[in-house]
Design a protein that fits this description.
Layout (H helix, E strand, L loop, with lengths): L5 H14 L6 H15 L4 E8 L4 E6 L7 H9 L5 H8 L6 E2 L6 H5 L2 H10 L3 E9 L3 E9 L6 H24 L4 H4 L22 H10 L5 H8 L3 H15 L4 H17 L28
Antiparallel strand pairs: 1-2, 1-5, 3-4, 4-5
Length: 296
Amino acid sequence: MNHLTRNDYANALRLLAHLEPESGDLERFARASVRAVANFVASEVTTLSVCDLVTGHRRVIGEPGLRLGTGEIECFDRHFFVHPLVRYHGFEGGGGTHRISDSLSRGDFRRTALYADYYQRVGLDHVMAVPLFVDAGTLASIVLNRSGIDFSERDRERLELLRPHLAFLYRQACAVAPGAGPLAASNATAAQPALLQADEVADGLTRREGEVMHWLSYGKTDAEIAALLAISPRTVNKHLEHIYVKLGVETRTAAVMRAQAMSRAVTSGYRPGTGISFPGTHPFRGANLHGPAPTA
């Protein structure tokens, strides 16, 4: 059942438009995304968590002022491989936004050593993770934590609305980060928006504009698209100007999102009106993220 409202879609678009300019710098994007997601879905502690699936350690970046002692960090790492969200996203192939309560009842979770040693110690009861990237060695997620009331199904749906687009921006930020070569060149699967095919573009775009959108959905620059289509970067820029006007957007990310939504709606037999649909469907590893890690 879909619990999302028109305002949820509008707020999601505004959040992504705010984050897109930050994707040129990995740490800036990480901090901005943590703040934005925490405002989008209420959370007492929100972090970007990068887990090393080989060593069983994680590094996190969060809002200023979040600090844990060495004891709390060691507690988390001690239970790393049995953490329900690490297992679900890192080892079991789960790809969507997931709560601990989706894997364990509240009672079962409270009986675990992980809860007793770590979550009870830091005063948190409920956790939900939004996976941005995963391969055999690394899991990167935005993680939200609460005490008291668990995250609702609407909370999960709102974050699932954002997930593929946050992952796309995260991968863009990784690609331009110093030392990001291993991730940028990796064949690993990253959750991202579905790639547009040239013959599946939104109504109203020309064939050439559809080809530009196809390569734009791969994250290609104007120069790269120009080389692929054997046209000039200036011509690519003019095509993008026309695409933005036709789709009623102002940024590259919004254009890809809008075109995907319209092409899927046409395929399903629904002719889009004013609503927008979204898909339902690493260099921080080992990096110094400035100071002790806050909670997951």
